[in-house]
Amino acid sequence: MIKLLPYLFYLLLIAMHEVIWKDFSGLYFVALNLPAMIVAMVATYKSETAAAWFGFLAGLVLAAANPATMGWHALFLAALAVGVYHIKEKLNLESIYSKLLLIVGTVLVHNIASIIINGTDRFFYTLWMYCLPSAAFTTVLAWVFFLFKERKVTTEKLKSVF
Q1: Which residues contact 42 (CB under 8 A, 6 or more apart)?
Q2: Residue ranges of the domains in the chain?
Q3: 6-45 pLDDT, tens per residue?
Q4: In Å, how far are 10, 32, 65 from 139, measured between CA atoms?
Q5: pLDDT value at position 40?
Q6: In the chain, which residues have pLDDT < 50?
Q7: What residues pair up with 27 in beta bridges, in sequence order?
Q8: What's the predicted TM-score (pTM) here?
Q9: What are phi and psi of 30, to 5 degrees?
Q10: Do residues 82 and 71 touch, judged by C-beta distance below 8 A?
């Protein structure tokens, strides 16, 4: 049961983001794609089975407000998690930049799939105005996360600056 707590916390974070924080976490029309970022990070640090199940459950939580597309989101996020896991196995992800490249690709592919699943008449407009800036914004947040995770920025370093 203790091993499941981080995954439950991540799912709760995704649910809280989708319900409460989504409107506040964006800048103008650029939204933070927290579910894709968390699924990519779980696939980067955990096993293939854990990543696939977490991606499936994250897709269910993500699309809970729209039951018509819930299955597609769950299936796609599970497949995306397995894909990220296998890419991680083939690549050397020692530097922050390679991890960020993986995150930006994951978020961009998820944004494009969300456009296709939800359906829109203006695909390229939505891609240019929402998907690309959202992928960049999410990657900046992932960059801050990786700086703290790899101890490039610590509280001691921050205290020494101020």
Answers
A1: 7, 10, 50, 51, 54, 55, 81
A2: 2-22+29-161
A3: 999 999 999 998 888 887 877 787 889 999 999 999 999 9
A4: 18, 9, 25
A5: 95
A6: none
A7: 30
A8: 0.89
A9: -95, 120
A10: no
Say how far apart CA 146 and CA 153 lie, in whole Å.
Answer: 9
Tokens of residue 88, six digits: 């991680």
**Token couple for 121:** 């008449």
Token pair of 46, please? 């955990």
- DSSP state string for 77-100: HHHHHHHHHHHHHHS---SHHHHH
Residue 80 in tokens: 């995306």
User: Does residue 135 contact residue 108 with C-beta atoms inside 8 Å?
Assistant: yes
Closest CA to 63 of 15, 105, 16: 15
Please check whether residue 60 is in contact with residue 74, taking contact to mean a CB–CB distance below 8 angstroms: yes
Q: Which two tokens stand for residue 5?
A: 């707590």
Q: Are 111 and 33 contacting, i.e. CB atoms less than 8 angstroms apart?
A: yes
Q: Which two tokens stand for residue 119?
A: 């359906």
Q: What is the pLDDT of residue 8?
A: 92
> What is the three-class DSSP state of 110?
helix
Q: 130 Cβ partners below 8 Å, 6+ apart?
A: 29, 30, 31, 111
The one-letter amino acid at 33: N
